[in-house]
Amino acid sequence: GHAGAGHAGAGHAGAGHAGGAERVVVAIRLRPNPGGRLPVVRHEGGTNVVLVREHNRFAFDFVYGPEVGQERIYRDLGAPILAHALRGYHGTILAYGQTGSGKTFTMLGGEDATPDQLAESAGIVPRLSRELFKLLDAERASSGENGARVLVSCSFLEIYNEVLYDLLASGEGRGEGRGERQAPQLEIREAAAGGVRVHGLVDAPVGSKRDILRVVSAGHRRRATGSTAMNLRSSRSHAIFSLDVLRRGADGRELRARVNLVDLAGSERTGQAGAKGGQFKEGVAINKSLSALGAVINALAASGGAGGSAGFIPYRNSKLTRVLQGSLGGNSLTAMIGTVALDPACADDSLSTLQYAERAKLIPVNATANEGGELNGGADGGREARTLRSQVRALQAELAQLAQRGGGSGGGGDDAV
């Protein structure tokens, strides 16, 4: 009866996890079928889907038909991860599927969302960002001066053709021709606290939901989108939006958590997308990193987790899996949403997404709350927090300057998320 438990409510994705070793929560979202042709996947109600051609049946924690709105998906997958982040648990949500199946729509939303109001089409990233500050404001109002002090910062990383780009860095010369853009010196390094960090990535402090939605909007606009036969605004890169939350209680106790919200590049096979030249190379890089992700998922599923008997997990085979190392089979509550197109022309890719998602269900997670001393090794925790606070003050000053400069440029920050 476990698969059905997903429908019991939003507590599932988090509550099942937090008590110890649990597993990745997996959802499937079916995209509306254009043209009215016979859909390739049938939702049987509840948490089952059937691949019509082979009569294969798959069961997941959640299945969303084309009629399900953005808020319901956020409530089921995003809200529990946010609630646990405020208690010091890392969290990750990954969106996987072929181009045009609704990944970016699910994670970021439609084109009509602005930083000042949340459109109905807003996705998980803006909804989670808004609710974070709603909860913090409510907490501040009830606790006053005696409450916990909370610092929030965010970063937005793009992985394109196995190169890391910072979507929040200014002056990168990101023209339409990708040759123009300068790759900043971003390096993946082991973090002292375990896991990995991307050295050189802008960590932007945010103090309100408006701040955070502006950051999301600016990063989303800079992301690499190239036309493929699959989708004119096809996202050809992986994007990872990360939120860091540091809470310091009146007693000096610190909790910190990182939430990674990941919009993966389209998983379609290169040949089908009508790709030539640079786009073919792009497709090969995307397929390489998604294959590496698949290999990691398989190894974790087979070994019963990061510390399982199978031992070696091939995180180093791509930049994507290196960056997500801490989120996969490690100390992070993780949810994956596979987006599936119902068009018969997409049957092979739809099957491949369902199989990928089915394997992810087998990955166990063992998340624990990250307290300052525990996460960073005793005295280092306090020192790291002090360094972080001084960095945040410097970045806040920088952000204020940027906001003043941006004010005269026609309000570009209000573009759609």
Describe, in plain words, how this protein is organized in 3D.
This protein is of the alpha/beta class. Helices cover 35% and strands 21% of the residues. It is built from 11 helices and 16 strands. It has helices at 2-5, 12-18, 70-85, 103-107, 124-143, 209-222, 277-303, 319-323, 347-360, 372-376, 379-407; strands spanning 22-23, 25-31, 41-43, 48-51, 56-59, 62-64, 91-97, 149-160, 163-166, 187-190, 196-199, 204-205, 238-248, 254-263, 333-341, 364-365. The strands form 4 sheets. Strands 2, 6, 7, 8, 9, 12, 13, 14 and 15 form a 9-stranded mixed β-sheet that branches. A hairpin with a 5-residue loop joins strand 13 (238-248) and strand 14. Helix 2 (12-18) runs parallel beside helix 3, helix 3 crosses helix 5 (124-143) and helix 5 (124-143) runs antiparallel to helix 6. The longest helix is centred in the last third of the chain and has 29 residues, at 379-407. The protein is globular and about 60 Å long. The two termini are 38 Å apart.
User: Which percent range describes the beta-strand content?
Assistant: 15-25%
Largest sheet: 9 strands, mixed
Question: Helices and strands: which structural class?
Answer: alpha/beta
Helix content range of the residues, please? 25-40%
Radius of gyration from CA coordinates: 21 Å
Coarse shape: globular
- The helix/strand order is HHEEEEEEHEHHEEEEEHEEHHEHEHH
- The averaged pLDDT comes out at 78
